[in-house]
Task: structure prediction
Amino acid sequence: LCACRSEKDTEKQKVEYVKKELPRESEGIQAFAVSPEGELFSARQDGTLVQIAADGAVKNTFSEVEMPDALCTMGDKLYIYQAMQGKLLCLNPATGKSTVVLDGLELGSAANMTAAGGKLYLLAAGDANVMYHHAIYEIDTNKKRMTELPFQDVSAIYGALDGTLYFCRNDASGHAIYAYEKKKAVQVCDLTESLGEDVLTAFVLEQDKLVYATLLKQEMTMVLLQDGLQDTVREKVIISVGKNMQCIAGNVVYYSY
Result:
């Protein structure tokens, strides 16, 4: 699990991208989420859910949560999707107690879960045999209701800090990132020429800055949407399709194999 941020060298007038390895407790993970305060929740493949404080110290370990597929923070709660159990749980990290939000869910394994505008959005495969084309499910945690959005062929989603939900579609017409506004999809940028036959696996979009990872080239690219300038941030980055990527205090946090 890594964080990558830009640091400007005022003497050389250039921007360098610095990679920082996060604590060892974040290794071998199934899913992760970062709170607005910078606390990391890491679901490891051995079944352990770890809460790591912003200073890197292990704050809590939760052993009652089995096989989380996706994690997401919203407010002071951590939401956990379990595909095998067909459940969405709400965990209060302060008490360690969890409650069931939804049960009996019949979805495929989840790639990611994010929060935007006070709701959760789950990116999951409706068909377990479809690798790159997921559907988006909107979850109202207050009403305990889930609704499938009318967008198919989605490879990645991102909940921005301003409450906007963004998603990337990959279909016969090409590749594009959309904003979900007033129950409609509004195209933000077209990546067809940049991606070609490649697939966008994860991204963050804050203000006019887009950072995304690709499947075939295995690169991370940063694009300034306003002027179209782009730069390769990192090479040899392998992120599974649809997995989580977050932006916290200028840092892009991601899990790479």
